[in-house]
Amino acid sequence: MASIVVAIVLGFAVSTWDQGRRDRARGQDALERILLEMQRNVTEVTEAAPYHLRIATAMDSLMRADGDGPFDPSRVADWRGIRPPTLRTASYQIAVSTGALEHVDFRTVDRIASEYELLGDLSNVVENGMAAFLNGTMTELSDFLRLMSLLAEQSAGVAFSLERALDELDGLDATVSSVPPALPCDAGVADFLKVYRTALDERDAAVLPTLYVDDERFEWLENGEVRYRSAEEVIASLASFPPEMRVESAYADTSVQCVGEDGAAVSMSFETTIGEGESAFAFTGAISMTLERSDEVWRIVNGHTSTHGDDDR
């Protein structure tokens, strides 16, 4: 039975490690696509800004010379239409909607999000301007001057900001390496076990729920049979003992086996004493459990308790 439990524990841990590897690869692929998309947007707005500035300058000269009036394209040298920049945001939007950026460090994601907010502002100028042009509400020279000036100003600003961001995120390797390196696989396990053992002895209903994963993966077996499927069931079992009754365990032979970067297989022996004085009794056994680290916090995914009997005290 013990070998089967260990095989299951290790199999789960390997699966967890592989999922983490795939998540990181997905985040790296999303970053590659986003950086390429940002570069294309730089090219687009950099090419568009000089045209808009040139046309806005010509329109401003006309306004100063003749005042406002119906817009006459023939009077504006080099007029080739509004020619808004074609902005791309699909790669960023897909990465956000699929959760691919959850595995990228916060600073990188925050920097990218700020750039796409600027692109969103420029897109709003384009959309509002084109809508006004198409529905006929933009007819005066001053209307076109205002739009072309906004496009020139915001395109130049977006190009400058995107170029700075790309310099900061220069090379995907640098971006990926900015993710904090993983801690040793068993970092914090000893501290976690101390908290876990104390919470069990004290039957701490506030702390215990934080020590187990809160999803359908959790289960705890006793002598080969599933006993608990949630932290609430564990707490309810402990609460069945009268509050004044002593329930205390001593642990030995603790072993921590690292599996991947964020998994650990733990085993230990124990002796539990229930009650005090002549009525007290004790039993011994072994515990094995799988731990998973998420956001640098360890939690129990599943476990198994096997008991060896009592001492007939």
Shape annotation: rod-shaped
How many angstroms does the end-to-end distance come to? 28 Å
- Give, in order, the helices and strands: HHHHHHEEHEEEE
Beta fraction? 15-25%
Main beta sheet strand tally, sense and closure: 6 strands, mixed
Structural class: alpha+beta
The poorly predicted ranges are 1-7, 12-18, 172-182
What is the chains' assembly state?
single chain
Spatial extent as radius of gyration: 32 Å
Number of strands: 6
Mean pLDDT, to the nearest integer, reads: 83
The DSSP helix count reads 7
Strand order in the sheet with the most strands: 2-1-6-5-4-3
Helix content: 40-55%
Describe the structure.
By secondary structure, the protein is an alpha+beta fold. The chain has helices at 2-66, 90-98, 106-134, 141-168, 172-177, 189-202, 231-239, and strands at 219-222, 225-228, 247-258, 263-274, 281-294, 297-310. It has a six-stranded mixed β-sheet with strand order 2-1-6-5-4-3, with helices on both faces. The model is unreliable at 1-7, 12-18 and 172-182 (pLDDT under 50).
